[in-house]
Specification:
The protein is of the alpha+beta class.
Amino acid sequence: MFSHAAAKALRGALALPKATRALSTAANPHKPPLDLYGLPARYANATYVAASKSSSLPAVEAELLAIRAAAASSPSFKSFLENPLISRDAKTKQVQEMLGDKFSPVTVNLMTTLAGNARLSAINAIVDDYVKLMKAKRGEVEATIISAEPLTKTQTEAVANAMKGQFPEGAKVVLSSKVDPAILGGLQIQIGDKFLDLSVGSRIEEVSRMAV
């Protein structure tokens, strides 16, 4: 389980960059707070800017999450988004009819643009990137603790305290925990894109690769 030695290793191994996000947004308040790349990010960035200019960032986030949830729960809607046999014009018209009077202009514009460009199948990845931008704007940092057995409240607090110095000043930490018996013991810690493996399973794997 979690020990003082593990806490010390955690503090030393996870050095996160300090407050590098907000500086560039002072000159341009509508600039996305993270630099994301790739096709989904292009749409997410453009949607973020449009939503920021129309003061609808949270509303657009809620709408995009609702669309993603609908695609996950409705096979017919998921099929509609992914079906390449439906023409672009037909998809654009159907999207406008489905969302036009129920969603914000920013969200409708994104969805009709995706329909016109035959990119509706990328909506989940676009939503993921938009949510990343919103979490960065709110100063949220996600941290996940993975253990072989459920941690007690005391143990969770010990891990959280060990991680405190690794977060940018003013960050809102969103802490979650997972149980994975496959790691056998110890901990795995994920903070943003930083990962620390203090599990027994990883130590056994290291031993198995040692030359004798």
